[in-house]
Amino acid sequence: MTDDCRSETFLVQIGNERDEAHRAVSTPVYFSTAYHHDHVGKLHGYDYTRTGNPTRTILEEAVAKLENGDHAFATSSGMAAIQLVFSLFEKGSHIIASRDIYGGSFRLFEVLEKQYGIEFTYWNGEEENDIATLIQPNTEAIFIETPTNPLMQTADLEKISHIAKDHKLLHIVDNTLYSPYFQRPIEQGADIVVHSATKYLAGHNDVLAGIAVVKGEELSEKLAFLHNTIGATLSPLDCWSLIRGMKTLALRMRQHEENAKTVKAFLENHPMVTAVYYPGRSGMLSFEITEEKLVEGFLKALRIFTFAESLGGVESFITYPVTQTHADIPEEIRKSYGLSNRLLRISVGVEHAEDLTADLKQAFEKAQTNQVLSDF
Q: What is the mean pLDDT of the chain?
């Protein structure tokens, strides 16, 4: 495969022609935990599977190239990828992070602050230049979700990267909701990109995985050391499953986006919806329903949408953030930045778009009818 092929071709070809022994098209899964040494102090290529594995190497090289980074590190979950990156920082470090943020990230940051002495200040996401006013003498990095979860706020990564470089800070971006098919933060100046690869990269709700991608050899060497030392690496079989999922990333992302635009248009014109948040790409959107008391009836009435916490799979999911993904964020904090108890988040799948809107329509009708009867 040539280096100048487009992303659709690159994705499909991941792992092809890498098996020199048998020329398998599908990447082999190397389950071995140990590798034979020919001489004292000299490795043939691999030593111990935590340090490196041939299947994981193919995955990591592919994602690094896809994100235009120098090295990638496959981890046991998306949160493990974030933990790996934050292992770079010492006690007393200060981090600026997005205010509207995934609840799991907020939970981890609370642990890092209380138990490890890493300080966090949250940026409201409205004006990138305001980030500069939050910088302190001990600030080490800026951590940005874009789009944010669940309010789908987007950020100008080039502006933030300039601020980070001017102040010699690391710029870390969570690119989970767009995927590298729609956004490549390193090309906009970011130093590190993280993914919950469980989501769009794997794409089928059957793999738990994380990825951290790094630009720069010095930073790559630090993360390689931490990756091996901490040991939260991705298993060979999960690496293979992730590779298989990524082969259809381009096809899936285009259909997710097309369906999401149809769902968005439907929601914007429905009388029981007061606001719709859609970042313009991907299959993610959120909306607010007119009354909190309608939420449970609406969720119970859905037939195609699955009421579940995850996102990015081929099946359409709907999530109630305040009791699921963002339950660990105190209510007063959630409400302060606009995450209300009336908000629902949708991961639009690749089913037929008209079936999805019909499902939403009948669920709204049933929720309203049931509530009228209950009130009566």
A: 95
Active site residue 174: yes
Which segments within the chain are labelled E, that is strand? 71-75, 94-98, 119-123, 139-145, 170-174, 192-196, 210-214, 273-277, 284-289, 306-307, 317-319, 343-347
Within this chain, do residues 349 and 209 fall inside the same structural domain, yes or no? no
From 35, 50, 70, 159, active-site residue: 50
Name which of 239, 237, 246 is nearest 312 in CA terms: 246
Residues sharing a CB contact under 8 Å with residue 242, sequence separation 6 or more, in sequence order? 59, 74, 197, 201, 202, 207, 209, 234
The verdict on whether omega for the bond into residue 147 sits within 30 degrees of 0, i.e. cis, is yes
Task: Check whether residue 241 and residue 343 sit in a common domain.
Answer: no
Counting the structural domains of the chain, the total is: 2
By residue range, what is the domain housing residue 28?
A: 7-246
The contacts found for 172-175 with CB under 8 angstroms, 24 or more apart, are 172/85, 172/141, 172/142, 172/143, 172/144, 173/143, 173/144, 173/145, 173/146, 174/82, 174/102, 174/105, 174/143, 174/144, 174/145, 174/146, 175/67, 175/146
CA–chain centroid gap for 284, Å, is 11
Residues 258 and 224 in one domain: no
Exactly one of 102, 178, 277, 320 is catalytic; name it.
102
Q: Which one of 246, 272, 295 terminates a domain?
A: 246
Confidence tier at 325 by pLDDT (50, 70, 90): very high
The one catalytic residue in 30, 100, 174, 181 is 174
Q: Residue holding tokens 């929601």? A: 267
**Is 50 an annotated catalytic residue?**
yes
Which of 56, 199, 247, 334 is labelled catalytic? 199
- What tens digit of pLDDT does each residue of 47-95 get? 999 999 999 999 999 999 999 999 999 999 999 999 999 999 999 999 9
- In the numeric block, the tokens 């789908």 are attached to 152
Q: For the segment 144-202, what is each residue's pLDDT rounded down to a tens digit? A: 999 999 999 999 999 999 999 999 999 999 999 999 999 999 999 999 999 999 999 99
Q: Let me know if 159 is a catalytic residue.
A: no
